[in-house]
Specification:
This protein has 166 residues and is of the alpha/beta class. The chain is built from five helices and four strands, in the order βαβαβαβαα. The longest helix has 20 residues, at 95-114.
């Protein structure tokens, strides 16, 4: 059974000044815009500074994030975390599995290799209706964009607590 993330009091503690990169896919743009709305709202409510970049599709999320992370580091203003947003809708071919699996793998690899707090807000669904229910924060549904933001911030808090970041 599918569930949704349940934030507790620790998950809602402010993370003042955390620089968070939101990287979003333009593919299935209407759905991703709903995810973005939920993610940015959650980040800003908890005091994070948000920068958003876009990439063509879910397979480009990790590479786009890595490019932006390197540029920010070189500029002396590194990001503390990343929120990746996208939507992959099942079609009639095996391409769905490739995009869903490989985008998740690449984001996980990036997060682990860089010890980077990352919230994965890439929906993998059977149809657009499922995507809207999961993405639209106004429907009182899952708000997966907000969940991904809260997950990234939870890891930022952990990294700060353990002395691994700002």
């Amino acid at each position: 059974m599918a569930g949704s993330y349940r934030a507790d009091d620790d998950d809602l503690a402010p993370v003042q000044g955390a620089r968070i990169l939101v990287v979003e896919s333009r593919f299935n743009e209407d759905i991703v815009e709903l995810l973005h709305e939920g993610a940015v709202r959650a980040l800003e409510e908890l005091g994070a500074d948000v920068t958003t970049i876009t990439v063509p599709g879910a397979l480009e999320l990790a590479a786009g994030a890595a490019i932006a992370l390197d540029a920010a580091e070189a500029a002396g203003a590194p990001y503390e975390g990343v929120v990746a947003l996208g939507c992959v809708i099942r079609g009639d071919t095996y391409h769905f599995e490739i995009v869903a699996n490989e985008s998740a793998r690449a984001l996980t690899d990036l997060s682990v290799a860089r010890r980077l707090p990352l919230g994965n807000g890439v929906l993998t669904v059977d149809n657009e209706e499922q995507a809207v229910v999961r993405a639209d924060p106004k429907q009182g549904g899952a708000d997966k964009g907000g969940d991904a933001a809260l997950a990234a911030l939870a890891l930022v808090r952990l990294k700060r607590k353990l002395g691994g970041g700002a």
